[in-house]
């Protein structure tokens, strides 16, 4: 099997490559310098020449606040990019995996959000990612849309930011009124590859298990790393950001539960493994 990975230098792209090592597949890793997913002609030419059987789109404009002021760029990367890939994949008979986000919801739910709940994005990032999902569904019936949240892996992320801040401060303020589920790229990549192996098409939520606030997440990071810093809970209002954050972002992996089985781990278990890896 020939698998094209776009955004291969990002957190998830790196983990997917790692998990594909040793498998009997040909992997074509690309990032923006090899294949700019917003360039329709380049994408069509690339697919015609390389003829992948699966494309896993890990490319995105993930800087949530920057997306607010870079609306056009966010649409190009998060919506037009998946459109180009879905259509080019269709033309060569390939499947597409599109990674999406909890930001497609408004954060007002009172219980874990499942795949059948209605989207209502409140930020440029969320809106553009939802348009990406729609293009993929409309242009290629062989799609896997996998929504995740609070992702960390080999790249820049909240865990690394906290570790670096914690080493240089005695006290930190972290928001306590937004809840979700930290998710390791290891768990997400395992699920993505399992869906592809089983040809289990459709829209899936995929986060680790459990619920916490960013404050709880930070406290656990410092507990596991042994960094001595006082963490003070604060409200979203005390920490204003350009993009609106969902208050309640707990996704339920309902489609995984109903079909292939939910192989994700508890968020604390995955975080422990990640921090042990960072400390090696
Ligand atoms: N990170 C999270 O907390 C989170 C949460 C929910 C969902 N997700 C979704 O999960 C997926 C993976 O996220 P991630 O954290 O692994 O992302 P990431 O680390 O930011 O990686 C994204 C990659 O895409 C590349 N890219 C940007 N524009 C491109 C273009 N036009 N053509 C080709 N590649 C391009 C980036 O390159 P440059 O770095 O050079 O721009 C980067 O290497 C994304 O779909 C994201 O929306 C992430």
Automatic annotation (TrEMBL):
GO terms for biological process: dTDP-rhamnose biosynthetic process. Keywords: NADP, Oxidoreductase. Pathway: Carbohydrate biosynthesis; dTDP-L-rhamnose biosynthesis. It is an enzyme of class 1 (oxidoreductase). GO terms for molecular function: dTDP-4-dehydrorhamnose reductase activity. GO terms for cellular component: cytosol. Its EC number is 1.1.1.133. InterPro entries: dTDP_dehydrorham_reduct, NAD(P)-bd_dom_sf, RmlD-like-bd. Coiled coil: none annotated. The keyword Cell cycle does not apply. SUPFAM superfamilies: NAD(P)-binding Rossmann-fold domains. It comes from the Bacteria. Belongs to the dTDP-4-dehydrorhamnose reductase family. Catalyzes the reduction of dTDP-6-deoxy-L-lyxo-4-hexulose to yield dTDP-L-rhamnose. This is dTDP-4-dehydrorhamnose reductase.
